[in-house]
Amino acid sequence: MKRIFTKFSVFTFLCLLFMNAASAQNITVKGVITDGADKLPLPGVGVLVKGTTTGTTTDASGSYALSAPANATLVFTYIGYTTKEIPINNQTTINVQMGESSQDLEGVVVVGYGTQRKRDLTGAITQVKGDDIAKMPNTNPLSSLQGKVAGLTVVNSGSPGAAPTVRIRGVNSTNSSSPLYVVDGVHQSNIDYINPADIENIEVLRDPSSLAIFGLQAGNGVIVVTTKRAAKGETRVSLQSSAGVQKVVNTIGVTNAAQFRTLYDTYLAASGAGQMDYRNYTADTDWQKEILRSAFLSNNSLTISNSGEKTSTLINLGYNTQEGVLKFGRFQRYIARVNEDVKITDNIKVGADITGSHWNLNGSSGDLNNAIWAAPIVGVRESETAYYAMPNFQRAQVGNPVARIYQNDGNSINKGYRVVGSLFGEVNFLKDFKWRSQIYTDLGFNNSRGYTGLPFTVINLGEGAAPTEYFNNPNARTSVRQASDEYRKFQQDHTLTYEKTLNEDHKVTAVAGFTSIFESTTSLSGDRTDIGLNIPNDPSFWYLGVSDKSNPSNVTGGGREVSSMGYFARVNYSFLEKYLVNATYRRDGISRLAPQNRWGNFGGVGLGWVISEESFFKDIKGIDFLKLRGAWGTVGNGQGIADYIYLPGLSTSNSGVFGDNIYPGVAPAYIPDPNLKWEVVRGTDLGLDIRALNNRLSGEINLYDKTTKDIITQITLLSSSGNTSYRTNLGTITNRGVEVSLGWNDKIGSDFTYNISPNFSYNKNKVESIGNNINFVLFGNGVNNRTVTGESIGHFYGFRQVGIYQSTADLDKLPRMSTSLPGDIAYEDVNKDGVITDADKVNLGSPFPTWNYGLNVNLGYKGFDLLLQGQGVAGNYVYTQRRTAQFTDVNYEINRINAWTGPGTSNIEPTLVRRGNNYLMSTYYLEPGDYFRLRTVQMGYTFKPEALQKAGVKNLRLYVSGQNIHTWSKTTGYSPEVPISNILGGGADNGVYPLPAVYTFGINVTF
Amino acid sequence: MKTYIKTSKNFCIAILAMAAIGILGGCKKDFLDRKPQGAYTSDTYPYPKGSGPFDGEIFAAYDILRSYDCSGSGFIAATGIRSDDADKGSTPTDGPTSLEMDNFTITPSNVLVNDLWRGYFNVIGKCNIVLDKVTKDQDPGTPAESKVYAEAEAKFLRGYSYFMLVRLFGRVPLIDKLYDDPVAQSNVKQSEPAAIYTLIESDLQFAGASLPPSWDASKFPGRATKGSANGILAKVYLTRQNWGMAMSTANLVMTSGNYDLLIPYDDIFKETGENSKESVFELQATASLTEKRANGSQFASIQAVRGTGIWNLGWGFNIPNTRLEAAYETPNDPRKARTFLYAGGTSVFGEAVPASLPNTRYNHKIHSNPATRNAILDNFSYWMNIRILRYADVVLMYAEAANELGGTANTTAALKALNDVRKRARGSNAGILPDITTTDQTQLRSAIRQERRIELAMEHDRFFDLVRWGTASEAFQQAGKAFVPGKHELLPIPAAQIEISKNVLTQNFGYN
């Protein structure tokens, strides 16, 4: 594609050449061309005197010099960058920053088994530049996509090393909605092993016609990651380093000791129970403060690259470390990547790429709900090995939140090792053909060891006059555990590409290919408890073999094998740069299904019309480019199928016990459907791309209508076969939406540049049918979320609160439950039958946002740059499930201070008495999930190249950055970004890990 | 022309390349033929040699019976706490769902009723799988005896589970087979209790006729026998007030020679008393240092003393109350000390119970031996078996049925049975619990009912007894509970199940 583009540019220049030739006094103009984003010099930039054949290219340091008329205009061109025209106006030095941006139409986009110019796309593909990802202090690059791509929902977690939940264009399926990741060609379910600073581009493929080439893997969208290659013609060493601190900005409001006592006394009195004697419980502990901390974070990346005539090499080393704000979690990752491309002849190229990564996780045993629930009247500890137990009313259910953290700190060693490698060979032949074969492997080894030590001394302060007791559990013994699992993947891709331009008018690119993937895993784990000896708290002893084999031990192991293969072909055709056609076909098979159902055909068609190329458009001023496009495609969701469920799987976890004899019990794990097949996703896209006002304004609008058919529905056969389920293809889900991305790129004067790019997307999800004609409903998270025909997937399902019954008169007057009492929540009598029953439960809203939006602002003034990023969602709700704990008395969240205590005291907060009616799912436990988060504020300064040259430094940028500094939200939890990974039961805040504010200082230097 | 030749040459190459791709794919024809790893399917499971080829499926049903759903808080609350002899216990505010059972403030969203519903239907489903397999088994090598035993055992467990369901919920869906179309059976309407009882009786009759009188005692202690089936069937007849069949069926158990009343009352509930001659049907649980809980039941620990330190034995639910305490005809009845474990008192194993505990009384019958706790290094006694049906229960059923039938011979038989139970209770203390001598049917009825209450105190039948005697309303009125006759004899159908059924299931009277 690049080659064609070059031809095309030459053609453009030739055209320019024959236009007119100005004549004036010649002067010598020189300057340095740099990349507008990373301020690095750009070698090989074409510099042409407009309207002449006079021209040159920049050297390795980005410098040029040429002789040109003093009143002429210079044209700067470089592949993948916006062409710039600058009048000389007698200047002898013209330094130019070339703008490379995602809005650039000439940019090349990876489309799966090939590339395409952005301007020729007929589907919805958004590119995010690696620089925009590298700037963010996130260890997982996916976290940085949040708010940058319309149609993409990213839910981040502050937990060290945790991968975010990613959804493309809503929730497609009741089974799996995670996209496929394609990293330099290799298919992945995560990209945890990628150094964020080592990414060239990320493309988000969203419409079924673009996805069709991936067949059964692509039902939920595809995210393509391309890692960096050595820059042409130079040797470069660059270091990107940042370090900072993470802080939890808002904790959950709970009562302090005095407030707790007041509420608890009121509650006991109202419940008719005796008063609590607090004499032994005099502390005032803020348990959240005790388990949270300010935590360190650092990201570092060193890249060495060299590119010559024949070979190009890139070496990248990365180190990330992130402590958890919840004591004492810590994640560390080391990454090394080597990439080498060798041009054997002009037509034969081979290359290899290998990435090794190693992570190290020290998980936290802290439990956030534990700290919310623990009574504040208890102190933390008497000594480092003696911790206070909770009062009797919650002792059995709520442990000391700090004790569990210290008890397990450093008690587990979790390490992972992963090697991802690929080899490719590419042969160009017969001028227009290219054969490329690539083989990949991904090998992972995870290893963990752990220890359970003797528990701390528990101090029971005792109730009332009861004495303080110190207790060491005589039944406790030390134990060790070990686990290892291994993961392998082998993939091969072979493609033949034909690329031809006929008569300058017809451009054809055709690709055909074959791919196969094999994946397998094995795992082994065990533990052993030493009955006789106390194993020391020292990692060098934490192996099963340390204890004699007569001690009780458990060992287990498992494995998995799956494979898939496919044939594919795609033709891209463009006529006069005006009319674009893309057609794709894929035949795909997976091992998970019965042989007769294994293979399927998928495909897509995309059409584009570049209206701005039409002659009638030449007169329209202000619009530089306008393209209308439409696409249709069908893909499969092979990820939604659990392995081999067409076979009659057995559950062997039951046991028959007779006396002390234990016998294996077997039961069908489910009822198999031998005709099970994949879910099919079909969709239509309409899109409009526009560039206007001298390319300063860019815009992209997409409308989509996507249908998933043959949803694999799990029907629980309660009454017939004892809670086993039957999974079969029944159900249809639609997602319809709009995506709008805008960009405004301009400068004021010569020094001040700015760029504003907002985007938003709207998605409407509807379950068209579930279980088809049978009377059927799916519940999630108990019965708090419901999936039913005609409404959005996994919505919250319960009662609407209308108030509080203030008195017995209210009970007589208002519809109520048979068990309602004054102080209880009054629910809406939806069916107007005069009583509140389950028939009054309704759809209370979706856990999935209908609106996603983002705003990115870049400002530049001389060497200074300022980046502002914000992101938000709207239209969803959060279920405060942490507040529904009724297993015992727990600390109160601060809203309970206003609890109803008698007529007129509250019409929102029910009585403190724990009554089942008030714990039912209702709007009382829902909060609007809308939020807007100031995601990034980053201020940087880039030193002038001249000032650095003496030190041999090509580029130096220093910056300070703040992440998640402020969030506008009505939610009361740590973060409005509650998990939505559970499709049928998402959106519950039941101890969500805080997303901390992050303050970092960073340096980028290139030699 | 030149262009044409060139193009066709290109096409040839393209076709060759495509062929090469085809070969790459084609030669790997079995590339997609993969299997589950490390897991069986019903086609690959190497069924073990046991008493029959259906054991694996049957054992899965036993597993569910001792699980939390069938033997946990729901079972304890519905059969114990709900009665007039026990209170919720634990700490005042722990376990509000159990308190709802205790106080008859229960609502359909109570999770315990859902556990019970799910649990017993799970057992029934497992039994239907066994029955389906037995019917479809065409293997000439399958011993005819093992087919009959498997069918009988599955029908016994199904009959018992339906007996629990019908007493707990009244109308429940009747599912007695696996349907050919799984979707069609996803949502079945409730049947009237009479239809459920018809199935229960025919299941238990088959089981009573076909199960072996005993199993190899070293391999299968506690496995359901002919006696278990007839014992439960007698209780079904008693519940249906079919006195004649109740008496004759109880008599089958009593004349089988497999049971007696010789084990001292104190020992029945100990670990060493498990599967004794007193045991007619007992859910089996065990534990070891390696598996402290997976092969056990939470039944005992939910009720065990809720102290601190070494007295943190459990949650302390289901405590015998002062009404029961007052119901003993003499405080010296040795059964009282074995039923009540007092704070500050002494356990049957000689332990000194701490004086300061959240409650003053605990269920002594589920209290485990400290020696076992120390050996297994676990205070939560998951190894304690659950005595579902004791021989004394059968004897008292016989007495009750005989007295209801009336007539001299039957009254004599009733008195004999009743006094046999009292004799064992009396032990060596001749001065207490004298033989009952009345031949007046009404007086003897109350004597038998009183004996059931005391002999079987805290053993899951008190609530059901009150309901079948028609004395529930009166008893709960005396206990000061808001029992609504016509409503509170049954639990509500779980709201979650009605939701899942999209209102195909309908709620019990008074709970809407």
From TrEMBL, chain A:
<keyword id="KW-0813">Transport</keyword>
<dbReference type="InterPro" id="IPR039426">
    <property type="entry name" value="TonB-dep_rcpt-like"/>
</dbReference>
<dbReference type="InterPro" id="IPR023997">
    <property type="entry name" value="TonB-dep_OMP_SusC/RagA_CS"/>
</dbReference>
<keyword id="KW-0998">Cell outer membrane</keyword>
<dbReference type="InterPro" id="IPR012910">
    <property type="entry name" value="Plug_dom"/>
</dbReference>
<dbReference type="GO" id="GO:0009279">
    <property type="term" value="C:cell outer membrane"/>
</dbReference>
<keyword id="KW-0732">Signal</keyword>
<comment type="similarity">
    <text>Belongs to the TonB-dependent receptor family.</text>
</comment>
<feature type="signal peptide">
    <location>
        <begin position="1"/>
        <end position="24"/>
    </location>
</feature>
<dbReference type="InterPro" id="IPR036942">
    <property type="entry name" value="Beta-barrel_TonB_sf"/>
</dbReference>
<keyword id="KW-1134">Transmembrane beta strand</keyword>
<dbReference type="Pfam" id="PF07715">
    <property type="entry name" value="Plug"/>
</dbReference>
<dbReference type="InterPro" id="IPR008969">
    <property type="entry name" value="CarboxyPept-like_regulatory"/>
</dbReference>
<feature type="domain" description="TonB-dependent receptor plug">
    <location>
        <begin position="118"/>
        <end position="222"/>
    </location>
</feature>
<protein>
    <submittedName>
        <fullName>TonB-dependent receptor</fullName>
    </submittedName>
</protein>
<keyword id="KW-0675">Receptor</keyword>
<dbReference type="Pfam" id="PF13715">
    <property type="entry name" value="CarbopepD_reg_2"/>
</dbReference>
<keyword id="KW-0472">Membrane</keyword>
<keyword id="KW-0812">Transmembrane</keyword>
<dbReference type="InterPro" id="IPR023996">
    <property type="entry name" value="TonB-dep_OMP_SusC/RagA"/>
</dbReference>
<dbReference type="InterPro" id="IPR037066">
    <property type="entry name" value="Plug_dom_sf"/>
</dbReference>
UniProtKB/TrEMBL annotation, chain B:
<protein>
    <submittedName>
        <fullName>RagB/SusD family nutrient uptake outer membrane protein</fullName>
    </submittedName>
</protein>
<comment type="similarity">
    <text>Belongs to the SusD family.</text>
</comment>
<keyword id="KW-0472">Membrane</keyword>
<feature type="domain" description="SusD-like N-terminal">
    <location>
        <begin position="105"/>
        <end position="238"/>
    </location>
</feature>
<dbReference type="Pfam" id="PF14322">
    <property type="entry name" value="SusD-like_3"/>
</dbReference>
<feature type="domain" description="RagB/SusD">
    <location>
        <begin position="380"/>
        <end position="511"/>
    </location>
</feature>
<dbReference type="Pfam" id="PF07980">
    <property type="entry name" value="SusD_RagB"/>
</dbReference>
<dbReference type="InterPro" id="IPR033985">
    <property type="entry name" value="SusD-like_N"/>
</dbReference>
<keyword id="KW-0998">Cell outer membrane</keyword>
<dbReference type="InterPro" id="IPR012944">
    <property type="entry name" value="SusD_RagB_dom"/>
</dbReference>
<dbReference type="GO" id="GO:0009279">
    <property type="term" value="C:cell outer membrane"/>
</dbReference>
<keyword id="KW-0732">Signal</keyword>
<dbReference type="InterPro" id="IPR011990">
    <property type="entry name" value="TPR-like_helical_dom_sf"/>
</dbReference>
